[in-house]
Amino acid sequence: xxxxxxxxxxxEFDTEQDAVISPTHDRLGLQxxxxxxxxxxxxxxxxxxxxxxxxxxxHFVSTTKHYPIYITTYQGQEIxxxxxxxxxxxxxxxxxWLIGYGVRKIISAGSCGGLEAFAESTFLVPxxxxxDEGTSYHYAPPPALSx
Length: 147
Prior knowledge:
By secondary structure, this protein is α/β, with parallel strands linked by helices. Strands 4-5-6-3-7 form a five-stranded mixed β-sheet, with helices on one face. Strands 1-2 form a two-stranded antiparallel sheet. It has a domain at 29-111. The protein is built from two helices and seven strands; from the N terminus they run βββαβββαβ.
């Protein structure tokens, strides 16, 4: 394990690739499809799963909720459906678990507020983000600090 130090402790980075506690410690023996829709849309995933005939294959158990994990078929391909929780730490925890069981391609969608006015139902594609939620510091080294 090697911690890349920074004068600002929250910008430190851990290069270790092996987890102390594996996200698949529950050893469910699941093999999930590689594609996943991870949506920040509340219970609409459950509504869509019921309407589309998706099958419930597992639950991700967190301290606040059991998140159903569905598999549906779209254009002949199996796709995982999962509700994304609010908060980076909780979302990263479920994503680690999904990836541990085979998910490799993830699309995430949801809704947001904004500081600028834009029409309702505007489709936004983020092209950069601020690292300020505390989770992303564990997944990628920080960009060079400009001084």
